[in-house]
Amino acid sequence: MTHQRDWIDILQAFGPSIAAAVAASVGVMQWYLQRLNLKQALYDKRFSVRQHVLKYFSTTYTAEHPIEREFADAVRLTSYHARDLFGSDVTEFLNRISDDHTRTYLKKVACDAAIARGEGSDIFMKEYNEAQARLRDDCAQITDVFGPYLQLHNDQPFLVRLEARTDRYFDRWDRILASRRDN
Prior knowledge:
This protein is mainly alpha-helical. The chain is 83% helix and 0% strand.
């Protein structure tokens, strides 16, 4: 009977350790899932900005509605929100799109005014077509500019990411300890 009692004592001794290990693993899993959730939320916001820009390009340049003035305002608002979600390259790209659209709109107004006055509109039409070609080039670059920001970076296996993270952690501590030795 003493053997049975010894076994129960051993289980009672390891019980709190097992409970602590389970609690720690649940905490680590919650942290990991929260991180994935934050990455997904950032991806969703970035994707909605990209879709917003694509939507305005697709609705602005149709035969029925060649140019909408609200496009420039919408792109500027999108650019304002995008500065916190993207790097400066995307923000500059959105600003360039807005400027090109404004320039195209002004060329169209000048061309229409020249036609209304009965003047030769060939020069104005040429400038308008060049401005539209610039906007088409901008539209073709949307995927290339937004592409690097629309990746979740889970392409590598877990162990490779863990190894890279561990290396960064120890490299950081090496730099901290080296800076203390230098001082």
